[in-house]
Each structure stands twice: as C-alpha cells, then as structure tokens.
Amino acid sequence: MLCCCSSAMTDPNDEKIGGAAAELTLHVHTLGERKLSLRAHPDMTVADLAQKVNQDMPAAHVRLALVTASGQVLQGFLSLRVAGIQDEDYLTAVQLSLPKVFSNTRAFAVLESNGRVYSWGDKQCGGDSSAVSAQLENGVVEIFWNRFSFAALKFDGTVVTWGHLEWGGNSSAVELQDVKTIYSTDKAFAAVKQDGSVVTWGEAESGGDSSSASQLTGIKEIVSTDDAFAAIKCDGSGVVAWGDPRCGGDCSCVSSQLLGDLNIIANTCAFAALKTDGDVITWGHPDWGGCSASVASQLSNVRKIVPARRSFAALKNDGSVVAWGSSKWGGDCSAVAEELIGVKDIFQFENAFAALTESGTLVTWGGCGGDSSAVKSQLRDVKEVYGNGQAIVAITGSSGAVAWGDSDCGGDCSEVHEQLHSLKLIVGNSRGFAALRSDGCVFYWGEELSKETPNLVVGDEVKVIRSFNTDDETSSIRVEQGTHGHVTAIDEDGDAQIRFSLPNTGERWVFQNKFDFLKKTQVIQTPLHENVVKIAAAPNPCAFAALKMDGSVAAWGKAGYGGQLDAVRDQLSEGVVEIVASNSAFAAVKSDSSVVFWGSPSESDSCGED
Description:
By secondary structure, the chain is mainly beta. It has six domains: 3-95, Phosphatidylinositol 3-kinase Catalytic Subunit, Chain A, domain 1 (Ubiquitin-like (UB roll)), CATH 3.10.20.90; 100-211, Methylamine Dehydrogenase, Chain H (7 Propeller), CATH 2.130.10; 218-291; 303-371, no CATH class; 461-518, no CATH class; 528-603, no CATH class. The chain contains two helices and 46 strands. A hairpin with a 2-residue loop joins strand 35 and strand 36 (471-482).
C-alpha cells in the first residue's frame, strides 16, 4: 500500500505574481452551448479542469474531454502549463467515450462508454466474464469489486456478478433489484437498495450472510473491515454489524453508544466510530484496535482518526495524539509522546504513522518505517510523505528527499538523492519507489529490479559491484562504446576494458569473465526514463509502468508482473492516455478506446489461498 500526505509545494521555475503562481482565466463551451469562465492554476491537470467543468454543469455529470480552439484533444494527465494553455484561452468540453478500467487483486474489468463490460486476468478472480457476457452487453453504469470478484450495477438497478463463485462471484441465491450502491469486504458484497434495505452475498464469515443482523433497513452508508460490515442507519438510531466477530462483525457490546451522527473508520479487523462530540467508540479485534480501554480516558475531543492495518491514531483538538491497537504496528506512541505537540495532521501507512506538526517537523512511530531516528534532524519543513509498507520517504523544503525504513525496499535513497529535486510525484510498491520530477525524468530506488535494457551512451557512469568468489568489490566504470544490448566500458583505473551484455530479463547482468558479474547497476547521469507524465505500480510485486508525454508506455521490474513490454511493445508505442495496475499486471487505455493488458496474474499465489 502506498500512502501519501502533502502540503503545498511550488516549482521554483513557476512565474510568480505576489509570491504565488499566476492563475489562468479560461473560457469553456460546455454541452448545450453553455459558456463557463473558470480560474485554474497552470499546474492543474487537464483531467482536474474537466472535472471542475463537470461540477459546474447543471445537467447530470458525464465524462468530459477538453478540446482547444484548433481542434486538439487535450490529454487528461497533462498539466495546463505542459499542454500549452494560456490565459484567456477558449476550450470546448465534449463527452468522453473512453472506457473505465477497474482492478482487483488479479483481474481487470473494463466498462465501455456504451455500458458494455469485459474482463481480463485470473479467471478465479473475475478475469473471465464469459458466463455472464450476455448480461454485460449494455446498461452497466458502475463496477464494484472485492479481492476476488466483480459486481456490475446496471441502469435498471439490477446487478451482474462474476469471479470466485464462493467469494462474491455468484449472486444467484439473492434478489438484486432496485440497487443504489454496493460495498465489499475481501470476500463478500453488500448492496444497499433504493428503500435502504441491504442484500448480501459471498463468503458467509466475511459478511456474505447477514441473516443474523436485525434491522438492516433505513441504511445510508456501510463501512467494512477485511471480513465484516458496519451499516449506519439514516435516522441515527444505531449501527448494525455482521460478519466475522473477530473483525468487527459484532458491535452488541457498544451498540447503545452508537447513536447519532457517526463517522466510522475501519482498519483490517476493527472499527472506530467518531461521534460529533469528539468521543470515540471501538469494537472488533481487541489486539488490533477493537479495544481502546487502555486509552479510553484520553479519547475525547477527537477531531480525526486514521487507521493503519492493525492500529488507530486519533488527533485531538488540542494538537495531541492518542494511539491504540498493536503496539508493534503503530498502536503505541508513548516513545514519541513528548514530540507529539501541536500536531496538525496524521498520516497512516501500512504499519506506521507519521504526524506533521505546525512547525513542519515529522514525528513517526510504529513498524516498517515507524523509526525515523536516524534521519530525525532532516525531517524539517516537510512537504510530502509517501510510504510503501516497508519504508517511508519525505520530501522537505531543505533536505530534498529523505528516506528511512527497510533499506532494501526504498528506505535508503542516498544513491539518487542529488537527483530527487523538483519532484511532482512518488509512486511505490512493497519493493521500492519511483520518483517523477517536474521535468518528466524518473528515478528509482529500492530492491534491485530487472528493468528494460537501458540505452547507455558514451560518457554514462555506471556503478558496479564485482564479486570475486565471496568478497564484493565496488568500483565505477565509464561507458566508452554503447547502445542497447552490448556495452564496452573501461574501469576507473583506465587499464582494463570489459565487454558485457545487458539482457532483457534476469536478476544479474553477466560479464564475459565468468568470475565477475554486475550485481547492481545504476545509471547516474541519466534517469531511468524521461518525458514521463504518470507512473503506476503493481502494489505487491516488483514492477512499474510509466506513461510518457508522447502517449507511449515504458515498464521496468520483473517480467512476470508486468515489468517487461516485449509482447505488447508495439501496441504501447503511441496513443495511450491512462494506465491502471492490479497486483501483478497492468492495463493501458488508448485514445481509440482499446485497452491493452500485460503482465501475468497467474504469477501471484493461487487465488483460492487466503
């Protein structure tokens, strides 16, 4: 899981007026010949501007694209600045017909503009919808998913399901009509109907059987853990819970306290309800946040609750913080209590928390990145924070990028530190991070990945670790001759030339000398990729995909998880407007409404294993 928090960042190259980047005044002709005049920041994306236009339209919202006066359709991922939009420009909004792509752990579902749906990926997780294809030919307006199945809501309020037959992919035992929206746990679904009643299906212990839950009527919202649901009633008369009691499926012990207007937050196995008076009520797994008795006296005047996987942290009105749940995974902040003063926000990661104070310092606790003591002095003037479950990286106004946590999974960015400036975005998976600079250059750090063959040129510097039997010796080489595939380089002493190959796959790049191998390589003077506008990451394995400004796609990482483009390279050379990731594969939406898939969902563990 990648998490990010941010406060305002500015590009030092922006034109400034009165200390802030100048906004643009834009005129947009919308559907029905209506004209809007809007203010927009030059760094706003085209997609965000289209959404803003959509919100200002009186009619029902539709997906929009923006077209310039010259007839050019603007790509949604571009900023207005990069797209060449100027102050007082005129644009036209047109209805967008591109498909929407949804993903669960190992499959994709594609919703076309005409309401037709098709799927790709692991058959046991919804990658094969052929059994219900006739019902998915038209009329679908939204798609919902759990880890192993999909549910398509149609215009007439009916629902079509497919995927793992026991975990939500088979809804034949229930009547699904007049459905308004759908919620999910890992292995079950709950549909709220127009009259506020609820219908459930899927794994019984994961919430698929709600027969034991009384008063499931008048429901306005449902919240879920991995294996339980909690439904909030419209009239504030209470909460109804069902599913695995160890994961919050039984709230009977606190039901009398769950009245009024509530904001319910869930982690993997527990719920925390924040009341309007700032009190907090918890239930679920007692060791993972479901029991807050040890801090009950402190849980008052709370204004925000954030969940990690096995714990919670609450921010109080006075700027103090209370944590509970698994002490190893963020449920105990006593070691940094003296530093948690004047906190303005808390950000959660998979197993840790980070608190940003009014002075711009960052305080962390928990596991897997929760210990930032080694870089504490650098965590000043923090602007953005990202995590991948194993490590955390902060962007500061003074030190640039600062990383900590598991050094093998992105907790050490020292090798690319000098390159990590003017950052636009950081994307990570459980093995490392990829940083996108505002100039379109991408830099990666973390676990060594098998990336696509780099195009080394004369003068590029490469870091090499040579292994002679058991001892590793580090040196640098400089490329003397080089293109894709084969490189001739000279070592730092200038007296030994080495010719080696860079294959498309493999964990190691082998020298001709059988005793030497290139264990780890980094091109220092050139980025991994250039002209990139967006990065997507397969969350758990080792693969990334990057969308470039020219509409092409680049990928790096393990081939079995989408890190290689060999089979689809030609299809991804142009026209791509969006990329989406599942756990072990990617999907690219093209401007002609086609969708290209690559990767191998079957590379993951069997879908039938929990």
